[in-house]
Amino acid sequence: MKVIFITKQLPVLLLITLFSAACGSTKTGPMSNVVPARMLDGYYAHALSVPSPKKESGDLPVKIEIVPGKKMEVDCNHHSLMGQFTQKELSDGNRYYVFESNGETASTLMGCPDNTKHMEFVQGRTVFIDSRDALPPIVYASEGIEVKQRNWNPSSSYEMDKNLNYTLETEATKALKAYPESLEGYDRYVLFLPEVKNSQKERKVEIIPGVTAEVDCNQHGLMGSFVEKNIEGWGYSYLIFESDGGIRSTRMTCPDNTRKTELVTGTTHLMDYNSRLPIVVFIPKKKDFSVQYRVWEAGELK
């Protein structure tokens, strides 16, 4: 299916869709009823709800996991919906997402003990977004595919330490021996996550690089990006944050010349929570650089 995007009309049309949507993932109907058919012919629009941050998390936004899938009869194997998300950006900076899929599924090939089957919501590849985006997310998916969401709530941020300080030997401390001890021009930070028992909730860890700097009233961000490196022969990986320390900012006119010192953060890295392996991060060996982490906990799929 050929998909043609004409973005000039979309901002107004997206707002119309948002005002007509109820809470949660709302299927607004065939694209021909929302935008000109030539734009996303055969696709349906889904508007997701954006929850407010919890009081205990301060002004931290929740993360929204966009989950495409379809209900189908399955056997004992694990099944997944084939397809992938494409993110599109409008001229005003707002974004929307298209899940491109022909509806086919893949599964493991285990021998089931019997022919028993059951109905299940078979998920496809998901995508995470922050709830601080200017507009609630609009997701386009082809007919027969549902779009659900799972909201993730954050913990406070905690500093990662360069100094290894542990007394008990665990599976994670033993595995650390396979990781590089140093990298020229970088400081190594290591995190051992505690084991979480008797909990059915899924967790993820967000690694947050930052630099302490003097800033004005504008919004600032540390420039740079994470690179994930694999350790050959082990199946482990570690992170390198590549940055020259440059800071980007908005260009608002500040009412006065007041400046303050604060932590300017950069692009973060979200990963699965795994207490059996250490999290190893290399950050540039520069003055005022640091790295923090935050644990995210999944809510219900809805």
Structural overview:
It is globular and about 65 Å long. It is mostly beta strands.
In short:
With 302 residues, the protein is mainly beta. It is built from two helices and 22 strands. The protein has helices spanning 10-20, 171-175; strands at 26-30, 43-47, 63-74, 79-81, 84-89, 95-100, 105-107, 118-123, 127-130, 138-142, 146-154, 158-159, 186-191, 203-215, 220-222, 225-231, 236-242, 247-249, 260-265, 269-272, 279-284, 289-301.
Keyphrases for this structure?
nine-stranded antiparallel beta sheet; about 300 residues; mainly beta; globular; 2 helices; 2 domains; Immunoglobulin-like; five-stranded mixed beta sheet
Chart the SSEs and their pairings.
Blueprint: H1 10-20, E1 26-30, E2 43-47, E3 63-74, E4 79-81, E5 84-89, E6 95-100, E7 105-107, E8 118-123, E9 127-130, E10 138-142, E11 146-154, E12 158-159, H2 171-175, E13 186-191, E14 203-215, E15 220-222, E16 225-231, E17 236-242, E18 247-249, E19 260-265, E20 269-272, E21 279-284, E22 289-301
Parallel strand pairs: 6-10, 17-21
Antiparallel strand pairs: 1-2, 2-10, 3-8, 3-9, 3-11, 4-7, 5-6, 11-22, 12-22, 13-21, 14-19, 14-20, 14-22, 15-18, 16-17
